[in-house]
User: What shape does this take?
Amino acid sequence: VAVEVVVGFLGCGVVGSAALRLLRDHRADIERRSGCRFEVSRILVRDAHRSRDVPVSPELFTTESRDVLAGQDVAVVVELMGGIEPARTLVLEAFRAGKHVVTANKELLANHGRELFEEAEANGVNLSFEAAVAGGIPLIHPLTRALAGERLTRVLGIVNGTTNYVLSRMTDDGMSFGEALAEAERLGFAERDPSDDIEGFDAAAKCAILATVAFDTPVVAGDVYREGISRVSAEDVEFADRLGYVVKLLAVAELEEGDLAVRVHPAMIPRHHPLASVRDSYNAVFVEGPKVGQLMFYGRGAGGDPTATAVVGDLVEVGRSLKDGRTGVMLASRFSEERRIRAMEAMESQYYLLLDVIDRPGVLAQIAGAFGQNKVSIKSVWQEGFGDDALLVMITHRANEGALQQTARDLRALEPVLEVRSVMRVEGAE
Amino acid sequence: VAVEVVVGFLGCGVVGSAALRLLRDHRADIERRSGCRFEVSRILVRDAHRSRDVPVSPELFTTESRDVLAGQDVAVVVELMGGIEPARTLVLEAFRAGKHVVTANKELLANHGRELFEEAEANGVNLSFEAAVAGGIPLIHPLTRALAGERLTRVLGIVNGTTNYVLSRMTDDGMSFGEALAEAERLGFAERDPSDDIEGFDAAAKCAILATVAFDTPVVAGDVYREGISRVSAEDVEFADRLGYVVKLLAVAELEEGDLAVRVHPAMIPRHHPLASVRDSYNAVFVEGPKVGQLMFYGRGAGGDPTATAVVGDLVEVGRSLKDGRTGVMLASRFSEERRIRAMEAMESQYYLLLDVIDRPGVLAQIAGAFGQNKVSIKSVWQEGFGDDALLVMITHRANEGALQQTARDLRALEPVLEVRSVMRVEGAE
Assistant: This one.
């Protein structure tokens, strides 16, 4: 016999509506698979009288959070309001009232993760957040549970659909950044103010959450080095293609000598790397560990329906534990590794550089000298054009970020170097 | 405080040794993440005196299964013997003794799944089998739990590393099937008798398990239509490339009008399909559903260490539920959908055909007529060569398998058709 689990909703936007439809449309399947019958009690909204395309009785809507949080029968609170406040206060209240919480709130997790984990653990309740990163892609559970026996070393993610769409149009159709962004806006893949996506803020928040679960260390969005894609040129994309690479906005979290390096920036990745074939608005997260080798999880990173499947998956997980009389979790004690966040200058990567140079005898030796002085080793050099119009394309071996930045400064000071047109990291190759 | 969970092993081969090493080497991490301390009691082996590279005391080895199964303290039995008997009998005994079971045994699941699910449920214990399909790739849990709110429509898998390695060498290096297989054998990617892999038996067993978990219907290996890759020619691979496709051995499970179609065969998939970039001995499983869209899970499908991470992940999952006082599962009642297995003739796909024809006026009309009579619609035709040496390459729209086979028979009877050189399904395009 199915156990009844009463669920309260905080928020009823795109994801909330999709989750409510999913709970209704797939009711029988969900009950058979989970052993639980999910009943929605109250739904907190801003305007209780607005008409909504949601299959629930209108009197469930309320503008009073206590209607959701004070309900004795409510076992699980689904938080889909987004943003930090009032979501944070309400989630903490839910914990203190002994409610489990399922959330899709990326900002909240990426800024107040530690506080939430501790409060959930102190109250013996669950905090589930599969939907907060990469929408419909099962990621949090695989990383925290299926891979609980592994020590991951690196996570590389394409976690922002807008920027991946823009870069795909630049790569596949030869568009400029501006053209590609205009198309993304026209097709609804970009917000009216796209800077949260384009400048990498969205990806940085997701990077913080991924780093937290992959390395058991509470990481906040502010810890993540961040560079957006607005300076990626059609030229960079074309040279990447000629060299066998594809340009992607990557979220990187990796262990370096026990420290944690976390960063979001455009990067070239080899064409045969599994992430290279992640096109359009799709997301994917690639992880590596010494035992499991390489894994990749691919799918829709946003959208009401995909994200709603993650919310319902979390509800099913919580519901099953309620059914089985399970108590408590251990989020805070799990995410208790104390790792230092490595300064960007101390990180390592390979680099691509595009230099506008005067082509005359001795110039290459001068340029190579600037690399050598900084102990940056050149992997390949390629000259395009001649005379005053010469471009030099260079790929380095893995090098220290600080040394590379010093090399770029030294190059700019060289008389035959007219311009350092681009510097981009190369990931997933060496 | 960590809860002690006593684990008995049945079998200590490559995966078992790797799992024991993982439990020792990552002991502290596993304890922090799971709240459990896993203690290995006894290990059933054929020869208790053989020396093994395993970090456990030699007196743990035993040749008596009752030492593992009758231990009052043993809470979880890890079955890594492989094959059906005696594994089946021992797993059933473990259930009856109230032990949870974690297994990597593909044959057992693919042939006796229903019996195992029922016996586990009757005894209120868990049966976990993440390691039975696609080694280190978290798949069973995401499909059954994270996607519990979704109704999947299709699963396409590259689930056999040997055949994917062979086809990768044919595609990327232009080798013949024989050359590629010889290289796979030399590098240890193929068994001495490779027919289980090459003829698709291994993939068919995995297909049955994937279909079971994706569609809640107990499917056995014998239900799965099966065709291996030994007849895939260098010519097929080359034409696929020219047409924008890649040849892969696919495990397909999909719903067609409420029936379940399950099959393993070589297929052409579009070059931009996420599965197309799964190279060498890697595995990947691609799933589709109306809500979640497209998802793909990629990684190492075999090998001691990757598979051991899945075994330990399952142990952690079981351990956490023990810690939380959880009881019972519901495997049998979950996998209780009664779906008919669709006969191969009733299935639908797109097809590629390679015909050796005499090139003279009116021949194409005759050939097109044979397709039209069988209601198979041609999507594209391409002629290679002239006169007596002409080859005709054709791709159809989605058509009925029976109708396509009849078309092939009709074509063979046409006088200007010298030979139907290849017929191959095309998946993931329309």
